Amino acid sequence: MHTQIINDDTFTASVSGVLGTLGSVGLVAKSMARSTDLVHQSQHGLQVWCISPWHGLVSASVHGTVYRSGASVHITVYRSDASVHSKVYRSGASVHSTVYRSGASVHSTVYRSGASVHGTVYRSGASVLARSTGLVHQSMARSTGLVHQSMARSTGLVHLAIVRSTDLMLHSTARSTGVVHQWSASSVDQSQSVM
């Protein structure tokens, strides 16, 4: 098991060194793991790095945990004050990822089991479907290069769930090869079709 707790100064320095550029409004969060050869992206050897995008703050303590057991890779990153939790783990052929924020009641879940990909996005305080303001839900399933936009696609290889709350956009992408999971958040405020 490899665990590292990063303080404010070290965390900020590591972010600047690894990521290079930070968003002016929101920080970009990425969590990457490969089935073979875990990616090292920290001077301290932390195999996975993740930046909390909420509020664009890094003042609170950030904890990163990564450990490997056989063919399974487990990654956990969380930030205490903002109640932001991000988890991604891989066991065999299945990929599971979960991110949630308790304050805004925004939940996003993407998981893959076998050949099917399932995505669920919901917000407790508002309706996801037929909501034109404040929240946008978009689902995309891609199979062998062909992009399909649908509300209920379960046979694709890639699932993308997008939730926008106020000015933050949360992307959750699960890929079948290479990068297992990637999170990003930005302040891009562009129109999205409600599905």
Helix content: under 10%
* Spatial strand sequence of the major β-sheet: 1-2-3-4-5-6-7
Shape: globular
Q: Note the run of SSEs as H and E.
A: EHEEEEEEEEEEE
pLDDT below 50 for ≥5 consecutive residues: which ranges? 1-195
> Based on helices, strands and strand pairing, what is the structural class?
mainly beta
- Determine the strand fraction and express it as a percent band: 35-45%
Distance between the termini: 42 Å
Q: Let me know the number of strands.
A: 12
Number of domains: 1
Report the radius of gyration as a whole number of Å.
17 Å
Q: For the residues shown, what is the average pLDDT? A: 34
Q: Please tally the helical runs, counting DSSP H or I stretches of 4 or more residues.
A: 1
Biggest beta-sheet profile: 7 strands, antiparallel
